[in-house]
Amino acid sequence: MTDLKTNVRLSVVVPVWNEAVVIGALLQSLQPLRAVGHEVIVADGGSTDGTQDLARLLCDQLVSAELRRSAQMNAGAAVAHGDVLLFLHADTQLPADAVQQLQAFVPTLNVWGRFDVRLSGSRPLFRVISWFMNKRSRLTGICTGDQAMFVRRDTFDVLGGFAPQPLMEDVELSRRLRDVSRPFCIASPVTTDSRRWQQRGAWATILLMWQLRWRYWRGESAESLAQAYQSDVRNAQ
């Protein structure tokens, strides 16, 4: 990863909670960005597994926030200095040409965008799931957190950042951003860990995600959906 236009600074915000297994590899992969003047901010939700110690020397800022992804990403954005904010999950790796792809975004009229996503692992089903996730996103203009959403800082500030809700914060912000512009879609995929699909079962995870999105679309509160999600996670363990 080399220079994003010299007059445009990128801030990568990584929300984490007990991600010691993956945080080191992710932050190591982002060091070339830091080397050319961009910044990496880790927003921790109170990890107890050593995540903070692993992250401290590999990021520009380590901030603490309430254990809620929306709050963590807002906290990271609040201290960011970049012109473009990129929100990256700890188990997701940017493609090798991420900077070149973002260079193409900078001069456009789009105010935000996202990457296609690819699930790790060799199962053919994961390729099918990834295809449907990307196709759905292109048709609806809605981004999920696994797709590494990026947004111009001034637009993020004007819209007030992520809504303070425990689930679907990415979908909610996508809807507001979509009213400003369609997303800039990058075909080079980020690779996200398929562990949750493997732990719960691919088909069970697909069913759960679609149920939650349908209920959210129908107007059910993010709080009740978060309770349903946590209950499903506990039952699957």
Automatic annotation (TrEMBL):
GO terms for cellular component: plasma membrane. Its main location: membrane. The lineage of its organism: Bacteria, Pseudomonadati, Pseudomonadota, Gammaproteobacteria, Pseudomonadales. It holds the Pfam family Glycos_transf_2. CDD domains: GT_2_like_a (cd02522). GO terms for molecular function: glycosyltransferase activity. It comes from the Bacteria. The keyword Cytoplasm does not apply. Residues 11-134 form the Glycosyltransferase 2-like domain. NCBIfam families: glyco_like_mftF. It is found in: Cell membrane. This is Glycosyl transferase. Keywords: Cell membrane, Glycosyltransferase, Membrane, Transferase.
